[in-house]
Design goal:
OB fold (Dihydrolipoamide Acetyltransferase, E2P); seven-stranded mixed β-sheet; 41 strands; five-stranded antiparallel β-sheet; elongated; Phenylalanyl-tRNA Synthetase, Chain B, domain 3; 6 domains; alpha+beta
């Protein structure tokens, strides 16, 4: 909201020497954010001049210029070249003399043009920054201004004014007005406040002929669309009259264009009081006014010339011809005020904030009116605003205020709030006195009555954000200064820190980062097809949670896997030339159970602690969430070097990442060959901790990699990190290191080609017993010397005892015991 200081001074005592920065500092002290300072980019000398004479001189380019002699209050008149033709001898105009600077910036200097030295410039309204129209120079007489020649035109036209801009939060809609911000400045400084709504209006009883009927057959959330509707009629207006410069200057500084005196008046009153207004050309109305919801398929053309298909929740202003306005958002084109308007019907209403907000967003039609209505306007202000606009139309547009009009008022009921004594001090942490509490609430306009154990508070009508004792406590702290709240860091309870699960997740992430992987968090949204492909072992359809209001309509489902996000990240990096990637992400996935409905419309109110039953219901409305860790590798793990080719990332690197995760989590993960829809057949495996499957690893199927625009091969691994950490056995004592040497032996076993090496390794480990320290596959051979349909697997075994040096015979005995188990289970034989 931009606040011209000259306007602000009408309603609150601002010190004459107060700078814009002083005003902003005061606003900041009561909770507003400082935005900017706005000025007219113009500097003098700019003076009132009078045209003494001129000669018209046709030019070779077909243009005719005027060589003018202009009195600017100096000893001799100035010769000025002017291309405009809308002035006459004797007219008083605005002259920018050499040395002045106009918006642009456009410096003015004496310069030779069209055979003359033009000693200045006669200015138009647009050149002065007073509007967009350029219909010739600005003639002061047309504005009702008769100032002496040589008078400073900058001050005369209000161009020396300045506006401060503050950011208004959504809960403080009353501050979208001079009335609201002047009151807040009064709160900040203690300066006297004069409410512009308390004007000495003679009571005007509404007459007949222009009453409104509210026919709301589809109330939103049980509230009708319009609770108040006031109309006033001004006849005999002259829309050709110019808007006074002081009003144009204030509207310009407030961020609005001058659009003609009638529209300017409605905008001016809206900025002044915070009540949006709309003016109708009375002669274009057909019959009475009805406020109703739109019918299915109904259309209307708004002021911007767009035909809009209406929704059944849209609130309309209608007459016998149909819709003439989109209530609270924008008027219709058929009844708009124009240069032919002679009689005006002024509308001031109170509309339901929810209805207006939905309509503005549905039609992508934000407006200054909707911005105020959706935040809530003072329900007691419509009559005052309508009368204020009518009086200005009488004063500035030559109209006559009639007794015609109508008024529909609803009873305004503000629910009282109980404020216990001691609550504010306990919540804010400041020892306010009772007088300070009641004084702050009275200052903002609330009615405070002492009650047993505290006070009963009725907030003012313009503060719909004050709904409970917590918001009242915030107001007390704001009025008395947030700087009174002590800055005290809370003391954390001893003996607490990260939970074991948090520590485990951090260890895994740090270990992957140390291994050269880059963490790339992504949004948890994807498509149903991606969920089916990566979020299930078979690729069959499993339930997914669809968001009611997704950020991206093409990805409206919560993810079941982290892999789709890694694929998007990889594609984005590859498209930018980063082809060697090792990525990982830890995050939650959403795993709804089949047949269970999730989500709820029951949202508990803010500021009230939900009951245990409410919390349980909210938990039940959310699908189960698990924390996963996933990795993706593509490109090379080592670049080409002299004498050494590049080494492509493959399945072995993905398995190394799995081992890094296992070591950091404190578990042993085994790989068992398996099949998965998104992975290459024969290059995929499930990951197990004991008998529990915890994830998978493998190379992406070529078609999946191609669909993700990944060149070459890509390998992935995904692990349920929550399950892995739950299966980890906590160790509080470090394992002792044996001082005795290890005994190493190799064994090559011939087994069926289709048998997974992991199963043979498990059999060897089981049979070798406690002396076996490790067993590792070192070779997989298929060829000469091995029967067809078989393969030779070579394992390196390491044995060690804690109390002695093993002999070769003991190691051999343990090895053969493992071979015996493998032979019994799989028919394995030792290769000669």
């Amino acid at each position: 909201m931009r606040v011209p200081l000259s306007w602000l001074r009408e309603y609150v005592d601002v010190a004459p020497d107060a700078t814009p920065e002083d005003v902003l500092a005061a606003m900041v002290s009561v909770g507003f954010e400082e935005e900017d300072v706005h000025r007219f980019d113009i500097s003098g000398p700019v003076v009132v001049g009078q045209v003494l004479s001129f000669e018209e001189e046709p030019q070779s380019n077909g243009k005719t210029i005027r060589w003018c002699q202009v009195d600017v209050g100096e000893a001799e008149p100035r010769g000025i070249v002017c291309g405009a033709r809308n002035f006459a001898v004797g007219d008083k105009v605005v002259v920018t003399l050499p040395g002045s600077v106009l918006p642009g910036p456009f410096p003015i200097a004496a310069r030779k043009t069209y055979g003359h030295v033009s000693d200045g410039m006669i200015a138009s309204a647009r050149e002065l920054g007073l509007g967009d129209e350029h219909n010739g120079i600005l003639i002061l007489g047309d504005l009702g201004i008769d100032a002496p020649v040589g008078t400073d035109a900058i001050a005369l036209l209000g161009l020396d004014d300045v506006a401060v801009e503050v950011n208004v939060t959504p809960d403080r809609g009353y501050a979208f007005s001079l009335r609201g911000l002047a009151r807040e400045y009064s709160h900040a400084t203690g300066a006297a406040f004069r409410d512009p709504a308390e004007r000495d209006f003679a009571e005007l009883q509404p007459g007949a002929g222009h009453t409104a009927i509210v026919d709301d057959a589809a109330p939103v959330r049980g509230r009708v669309g319009a609770s108040e509707f006031v109309t006033r009629v001004v006849r005999g207006v002259d829309p050709s009259r110019p808007t006074p410069p002081w009003m144009v200057a204030r509207l310009t500084l407030a961020g609005m264009r001058s659009l003609g005196v009638l529209i300017d008046i409605t905008n001016y009153v809206m900025l002044e009081l915070g009540q949006p207004l709309h003016g109708y050309d009375l002669d274009k109305l057909a019959g009475g006014i009805t406020v109703r919801r739109a019918a299915p398929g109904e259309k209307m053309t708004t002021l911007d010339g767009q035909e809009r298909v209406l929704h059944v929740e849209d609130l309309l202003i209608t007459d016998e011809s149909g819709p003439i306005g989109l209530a609270g958002v924008m008027g219709g084109g058929t009844t708009e005020m124009s240069e032919t308007t002679r009689n005006v019907l002024i509308e001031a209403a109170t509309f339901d904030p929810t209805t207006i907000a939905r309509t503005a967003r549905r039609h992508k039609l934000p407006s200054e009116a909707s911005k105020r209505f959706e935040r809530g306007v003072d329900p007691l202000i419509p009559f005052v605003a309508a009368r204020r606009a009518a009086d200005l139309m009488v004063e500035l547009a030559g109209g006559t205020l009639t007794e015609e009009g109508g008024a529909l008022f609803a009873e305004v009921f503000i629910e009282e709030i109980a404020l216990p004594r001691g609550f504010v001090q306990g919540l804010i942490g400041v020892d306010y006195t009772d007088d300070e509490i009641t004084g702050a609430l009275t200052t903002i306009g609330a009615e405070v009555t002492e009650s047993e154990g505290g006070w009963t508070v009725i907030p003012p009508t313009w503060r719909p954000d004050l709904t409970d004792k917590w918001t009242l406590a915030e107001e007390v702290a704001r009025i008395h200064g947030l700087n009174r709240i002590p800055s005290v860091l809370p003391t954390p309870p001893s003996g607490r820190g990260l939970t074991p699960a948090q520590q485990g997740r951090r260890r895994v992430a740090n270990a992957l980062a140390a291994a050269g992987f880059v963490e790339t968090p992504s949004f948890p949204f994807t498509t149903e097809a991606q969920n089916d492909l990566h979020g299930s072992a078979s690729g069959n359809h499993l339930p997914s949670i669809r968001l009611a209001n997704p950020l991206d309509g093409s990805a409206p489902f919560l993810r079941r896997s982290l892999v789709p996000g890694l694929l998007q990240t990889a594609h984005r990096n590859i498209s930018r030339g980063l082809t060697d990637l090792a990525l990982f992400e830890t995050g939650t996935v959403f795993l709804p159970e089949p047949g269970v409905e999730y989500g709820t419309d029951e949202v508990p109110p803010l500021g009230v602690r939900p009951s245990d039953e409410t919390l349980a219901a909210l938990d039940a409305s959310i699908p189960p969430q698990r924390r996963y860790v996933s990795v993706l590798l593509t490109g090379n793990v080592s670049a080409r070097q002299p004498g050494r080719p590049a080494e492509a990332a493959g399945l072995s690197e993905a398995l190394d990442a799995v081992r890094v995760i296992a070591a950091a989590a404190g578990v042993e993960i085994e790989v068992v060959q398996s099949q998965r829809a998104a992975l290459h057949p024969g290059r995929a495996g499930s990951l197990r901790v004991g008998d529990v499957e915890v994830g998978y690893v493998g190379e992406l199927h070529p078609s999946v990699a191609e669909a993700a625009d990944l060149p070459g091969r890509a390998t992935v691994a995904e692990i349920d990190l929550d399950v892995v950490l739950e299966l980890a056995v906590p160790s509080t004592v470090a394992a002792s290191l044996s001082t005795y040497p290890a005994a190493t032996q190799d064994v090559s076993l011939v087994v069926p080609a289709e048998l997974a090496a992991g199963e043979v390794r498990a059999a060897l480990a089981e049979g070798a017993g406690a002396l076996l320290e490790s067993v590792r596959l070192v070779d997989d051979y298929r060829g000469d010397g091995v029967p067809e349909g078989s393969k030779s697997l070579t394992f390196a075994l390491r044995f060690r005892a804690d109390d002695r040096t093993l002999t070769a015979a003991e190691a051999t005995e343990a090895k053969l015991a493992g071979v015996a188990v493998a032979s019994e289970r799989f028919g394995a034989t030792i290769r000669d």
